[in-house]
């Protein structure tokens, strides 16, 4: 049986192929591209209007949603695609069936199983009707003759029953769903030209353009040249102040029209940029160091500084300023990453100075300044609407002393209304609505060594894990609880380690835990332990190893120390009084050993459960992909919607060095658990670190908590432990058994003698 390939001369097969191809494109495109969430976006913007209505990004988004024709174009394109698909489907439905199963009974209009007499009679009638000599159709007559032969001739009937064809086996025919004119010799040059243009010109150009663009950008869509530029200047200037940092930021190649087509140079720049320079004052214009002296870098620096100063510019240059401001947060995040990489290289290799902590923290602070459009020396209160420079004198007066967001929140409502009386009732309500939407983060820390048997003791060189639990609430919840005196101490944020807040937290913590402490002491009395003093010191060691974090642990007061001492004295007296006879002392020691073993087993089981839970949380965090959409930032002058993100890290503020690399928390919607790991110091002793949480969007909401470490000496590994003396071969085992048997027999003989 042979094979035949033939092109579709009628074009029927090509319609089947074309209908399937269009359907595979139109159906998924409708599902993914139909602008069904346009109403949802309108509803979302409407819900944000009360708080974010004055923000620049909100007004731009609202205008864009109202004037955008992209959803209309998408709908038109999809409707056109569906029209083409339906037309092709209709065309296919009208096509005749080209391939049908051959049935001679149907050709002769007979029922299956008809007798030979009926077959001959029907053939005679049809022959008279369709015979070419009688004016009939020759093709139809040939079909009738073929069907008659298949039913009357023995060989033809056998071929029809076996192969489905009276002529026997035929070559398999495959139709190619392309019209025959494509391979027609007349059109060969045109087809070859189109083929060469598509696969030898267009496809290589598209792939080459994509490849060239991909190798120029990092995974965070930052130009590789920009990353190298940041690395050069952070290595060159480890201690970078804010002015120098601004110059390095605006020297990024993203602002150079030769590297980025989005950046533009306008003819009016020669007039407007010098005018802004005169208004800004000293911005190191005469500095000849490249690339700071290049026109694109100077323009970007002027635009960024004018944004921080909240200066008004013309409409022509406003678009360029929005472009620079919009790009800056991602570039500053890249600078933080570069600083961390240089720090890791300095720690592992040595030979050069790592960037100072102040340089990395200045990058974080500049990100806050860019998002809020504020200079470094300005008050955080200017982030709120309707606040101007002249209004700050009411806030910082001796009567109120409000200098931060936390001070404003902690005021009583009556004092707050009195201080902000210059706003009026309507503006005051708007300010309170905005302030209530600000984030209030609660930060809890837990310190342990997960990969060690004793996870509470930190030894030299071990890997320390600090589990930080972040809980986000709105400032409005603080307003509701501020009237309750019991909640005041707990809800005050710890901005830059505020002493009063930590004291208030300590008092609340002590009041809550006095009851459980006394209950635990009474249980100790009932157990009549032999060494209560040793257990107390052990607990103190665990407490020191876990780290005394301000706001989470409190040191016992003098009165509590006296209570502890009296409890220890009474326990020792009762224990001595109970030791009357040796038998009682033996029973007591047995009970004591049993209780100690049970407590140790319970402690080990709890530590094991905690370790398993930590591993499970870590695995879930690796598998889960959380959305980076958290909460929109209130920013009056930022041109794009910004989500609340945070940096979390551990630092040694005394030595101005990073202890753990900053973790960019981008998924903190309600609560988030972050594990920070770092190697413990190689020398034993007490160390004072800081757990720092910094916002990348808000000024004045950073938190710093002290973290104390007591590093103990690492345990010595015993080489001659009895359980490690295992025979290496079977012969040694047999020799060992023989020697043991001989010794046992000698002992028995001695006993018999």
From TrEMBL:
Residues 565-594 have a biased composition (Basic and acidic residues). GO terms for molecular function: protein transmembrane transporter activity; RNA binding. It is found in: Endoplasmic reticulum membrane. Keywords: Chaperone, Coiled coil, Endoplasmic reticulum, Membrane, Phosphoprotein, Protein transport, Repeat, Transmembrane, Transmembrane helix, Transport. Residues 480-607, 720-753 are annotated as: Disordered. GO terms for cellular component: Sec62/Sec63 complex. GO terms for biological process: nervous system development; post-translational protein targeting to endoplasmic reticulum membrane; SRP-dependent cotranslational protein targeting to membrane. Residues 103-164 form the J domain. It is a multi-pass membrane protein. InterPro entries: C2_domain_sf, DnaJ_domain, Ig_E-set, J_dom_sf, Sec63-dom. SMART domains: DnaJ (SM00271), Sec63 (SM00973). PANTHER family: SEC63 DOMAIN-CONTAINING (PTHR24075), TRANSLOCATION PROTEIN SEC63 HOMOLOG (PTHR24075:SF0). The ER translocon complex consists of channel-forming core components SEC61A1, SEC61B and SEC61G and different auxiliary components such as SEC62 and SEC63. This is Translocation protein SEC63 homolog. It comes from Paramormyrops kingsleyae.
């Amino acid at each position: 049986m042979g094979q035949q390939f033939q092109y579709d001369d009628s074009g029927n097969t090509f319609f089947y192929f074309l209908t399937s191809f269009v359907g595979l494109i139109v159906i998924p495109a409708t599902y993914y591209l139909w602008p069904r969430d346009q109403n949802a976006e309108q509803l979302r913007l409407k819900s944000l209007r009360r708080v974010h209505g004055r923000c620049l990004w909100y007004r731009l988004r609202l205008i864009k949603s109202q004037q955008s024709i992209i959803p209309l174009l998408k709908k038109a394109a999809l409707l056109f695609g569906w029209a083409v698909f339906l037309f092709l489907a209709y065309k296919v439905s009208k096509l005749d069936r080209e391939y049908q199963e051959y049935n001679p009974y149907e050709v002769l209009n007979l029922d299956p199983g008809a007798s030979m007499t009926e077959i001959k009679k029907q053939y005679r009638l049809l022959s008279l009707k369709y015979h070419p000599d009688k004016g009939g159709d020759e093709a139809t007559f040939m079909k009738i003759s073929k069907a008659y032969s298949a039913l009357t001739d023995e060989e033809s009937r056998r071929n029809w029953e076996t192969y489905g064809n009276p002529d026997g086996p035929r070559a398999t025919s495959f139709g190619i769903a392309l019209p025959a004119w494509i391979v027609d010799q007349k059109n060969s040059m045109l087809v070859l030209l189109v083929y060469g243009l598509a696969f030898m010109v267009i496809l290589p150009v598209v792939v080459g353009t994509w490849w060239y663009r991909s190798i120029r950008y990092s995974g965070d869509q930052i130009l590789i040249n920009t990353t190298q530029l940041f690395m050069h200047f952070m290595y060159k200037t480890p201690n970078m102040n804010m002015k120098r940092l601004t110059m390095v930021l605006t020297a990024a190649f993203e602002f150079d029209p030769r590297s980025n087509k989005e950046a533009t140079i306008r003819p009016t720049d020669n007039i407007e940029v010098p005018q802004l320079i005169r208004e800004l004052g000293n911005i190191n214009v005469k500095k000849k160091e490249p690339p700071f002296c290049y026109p694109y870098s100077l323009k970007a620096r002027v635009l960024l500084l004018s944004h921080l100063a909240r200066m008004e510019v013309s409409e022509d240059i406003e678009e360029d300023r929005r472009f620079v401001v919009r790009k800056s947060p991602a570039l500053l995040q890249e600078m933080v990453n570069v600083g961390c990489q240089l720090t890791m290289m300095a720690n592992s290799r040595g030979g050069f100075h790592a960037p100072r902590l102040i340089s990395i923290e200045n990058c974080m602070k500049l990100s806050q300044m860019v998002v809020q459009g504020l200079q470094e020396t300005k008050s955080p209160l200017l982030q709120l609407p309707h606040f101007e420079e002249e209004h700050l004198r009411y806030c910082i007066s001796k009567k109120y002393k409000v200098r931060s967001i936390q001070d404003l929140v902690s005021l009583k409502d009556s004092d707050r209304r009195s201080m902000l009386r210059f706003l009026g009732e309507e503006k005051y309500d708007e300010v309170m609505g905005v302030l209530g939407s600000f984030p209030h983060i609660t930060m809890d820390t837990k310190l342990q060594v997960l990969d060690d048997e004793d996870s509470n003791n930190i030894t030299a060189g071990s890997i320390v894990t600090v589990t930080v639990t972040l809980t986000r609430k709105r400032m409005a919840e603080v307003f509701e609880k501020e009237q309750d005196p019991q909640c005041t101490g707990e809800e005050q944020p710890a901005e830059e380690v505020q002493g009063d807040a930590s004291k208030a937290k300590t008092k609340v913590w002590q009041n809550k835990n006095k009851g459980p402490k006394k209950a635990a002491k009474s249980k100790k009395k009932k157990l009549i332990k032999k060494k209560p003093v040793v257990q107390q010191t052990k607990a103190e060691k665990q407490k020191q190893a876990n780290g005394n974090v301000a706001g989470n642990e409190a040191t016992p007061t003098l009165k509590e120390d006296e209570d502890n001492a009296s409890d220890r004295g009474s326990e020792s007296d009762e224990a001595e009084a109970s030791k009357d006879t040796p038998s009682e002392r033996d029973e007591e020691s047995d009970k004591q050993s049993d209780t100690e073993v049970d407590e140790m087993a319970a402690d080990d089981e709890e530590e094991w459960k905690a370790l398993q839970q930590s591993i499970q949380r870590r695995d879930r965090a690796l598998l889960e992909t959380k959305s980076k959409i958290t909460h929109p930032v209130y920013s009056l002058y930022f041109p794009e919607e910004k989500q609340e993100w945070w940096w979390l890290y551990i630092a040694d503020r005394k030595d101005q060095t990073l202890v753990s690399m900053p973790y960019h928390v981008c998924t903190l919607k309600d609560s988030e658990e972050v594990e920070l790991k770092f190697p413990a110091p190689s020398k034993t002793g007490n160390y004072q670190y800081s757990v720092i949480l910094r916002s990348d969007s808000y000024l004045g909401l950073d938190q710093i908590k002290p973290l104390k470490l007591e590093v103990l000496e690492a345990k010595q590994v015993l080489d001659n432990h009895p359980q490690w003396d295992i025979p290496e071969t079977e012969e040694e085992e047999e020799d060992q058994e023989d020697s043991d048997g001989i010794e046992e027999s000698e002992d028995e003989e001695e006993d018999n003698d």
